[in-house]
Amino acid sequence: xxxxxxxxxxxxxxxxxxxxxxxxxxxxxxxxxxxxxxxxxxxxxxxxxxxxxxxxxxxxxxxxxxxxxxxxxxxxxxxxxxxxxxxxxxxxxxxxxxxxxxxxxxxxxxxxxxxxxxxxxxxxxxxxxxxxxxxxxxxxxxxxxxxxxxxxxxxxxxxxxxxxxxxxxxxxxxxxxxxxxxxxxxxxxxxxxxxxxxxxxxxxxxxxxxxxxxxxxxxxxxxxxxxxxxxxxxxxxxxxxxxxxxxxxxxxxxxxxxxxxxxxxxxxxxxxxxxxxxxxxxxxxxxxxxxxxxxxxxxxxxxxxxxxxxxxxxxxxxxxxxxxxxxxxxxxxxxxxxxxxxxxxxxxxxxxxxxxxxxxxxxxxxxxxxxxxxxxxxxxxxxxxxxxxxxxxxxxxxxxxxxxxxxxxxxxxxxxxxxxxxxxxxxxxxxxxxxxxxxxxxxxxxxxxxxxxxxxxxxxxxxxxxxxxxxxxxxxxxxxxxxxxxxxxxxxxxxxxxxxxxxxxxxxxxxxxxxxxxxxxxxxxxxxxxxxxxxxxxxxxxxxxxxxxxxxxxxxxxxxxxxxxxxxxxxxxxxxxxxxxxxxxxxxxxxxxxxxxxxxxxxxxxxxxxxxxxxxxxxxxxxxxxxxxxxxxxxxxxxxxxxxxxxxxxxxxxxxxxxxxxxxxxxxxxxxxxxxxxxxxxxxxxxxxxxxxxxxxxxxxxxxxxxxxxxxxxxxxxxxxxxxxxxxxxxxxxxxxxxxxxxxxxxxxxxxxxxxxxxxxxxxxxxxxxxxxxxxxxxxx
Length: 781
Hints:
By secondary structure, the chain is α/β, with parallel strands linked by helices.
């Protein structure tokens, strides 16, 4: 059983047609705007087959046809490729299936529904039919020569048709005849009779064309060029008005007016005028027209000449930066330097600032503050995970859905030519088979090249030299080297505990109180509570997690305040677990007694400084060095370097020449789930091995950091401030530091320098003198 047999006993949506009749085995576009017809198409789309019955109206002028206003015979079609227009109308491609006769027609819920019976053709094949078919083809060939409405290529495809019924239907669609006559062609089921009827219609139309040609010759006169153009414009205007177009300027004239009024460079204006003229020659429903419209609109929306006036008041800028951020001395000084240079020199900036540091230290918010201090618009471009060069340079207009690149879109969103654009997570761009976005970024950030940056979509030079680019990265180690050379890197290392407390008091608590609708007198955080949150609930270099826990406490307090409006909550450490839950991190205190093979090392992580208890143990074996605790490759190499230093200086430590052949050494860094990396634990690893090999304990009140060489030299390390804070947090005030890091102390806060006893060393022998005890000292002899 066919699909048509399955559906003929069910109600099918009906669409009344004006001035058009569609035949089976043909595909034709239909345009629908009437409410009932739109509902019919929507109902058809919901069905599996998408079937609709098209019935021609007896009178095209009737807006809401009733049952008696429609012919009984129509065609069953399948609605495909449905396209909705902004005005609510619909364009659908109708695929003619079969002639049908409506047996039952009724209106249900503002839509015509019908049952039908299929109509079968009655066809015969003989010499008479063949002769009539050939005659009709010749007539149609003559008709095509005389009319200008049909492409000559159409005849080639028709000449191959040998079925009289199908030929009749196709020719009828091309003839400019009445709807009633087209309907008659649809209703005639005998194919010979139908072909005969169409042949007669062809003869009549050919005769009429001949009469029109004769009349045209009689009344023809030559028009001047200006008169001809005027008449053509008037015809176009009349056609648009007939189609219901808006009064006044048409779309092309409106675009030309916008281009004329826009403040754009001459070369851009000439290109846009060329595009609009191309648009004027295209059919209204061509897919290319929307591409050109979008392109012209995008180019006109770009701020080719619009810019904000820089606020070059150094004092005011400093106030804004201090108001928005606590600390961050180096970045703030660099911004003030930029402003000072900008005030003295009119040339564009020669360098691009790149803020590096762990998450949550304020890189993005600092960029926003810079824009505010400069009185510039701010726009952000997220580059994390981008692996397509077109995301930076834009897509060429030949592709479907093409658009400008992210840089041009950021400028478009900002609305000015000189915004502050934040290139967020610039190190996370990835090369792929679609191109290398880091290479495309070179042109954007190069002050020499970016004055004539060309986006593939815009395809016109756009000046980026006035844009203030600021990049951010968590680490620049993975950054493309030529790109890194264009950046002035400013490191935001993270906040100390004291800085976090100040930030919480000045920024985070007031912001969360306001966000949760709590007055300052209704909820108070003590300093002890803030320290507990920092040390026992968070482990980060920034302040994001701290703010989340402050927000959580505010929400908990809000519940109590709603229940008791007079309540004033003073949050102390005794209530903290009730408000925030159990502690997430518990920092163990450093060992208070001297231990053999236990050394307090200092490490830097993205969450700040950490005290690292390094343990070494000796056991019988054959000289193997076992390293555990998720140590990185560099840290393992540091341990191997320290082991080689011990072997080459065995006499100095009172060891046998072949001691390594009699024992194995196992080094472990507790909290094995936490990855550890870097060379700065070199002296701590070496000291732990010496302590274990010589049975000499290590002083418990001393911590250390430094890289060791095969000759025992102690080299400089990074992250010293965070490491010192970690030592103070655990109660250790004596810290062994490489002599080369003594210069870094000038940037330390006073409270760190006041509480810490810095011991500067250049050679590992000095480490032994300061940190290692004799065996009798442990015994108290």
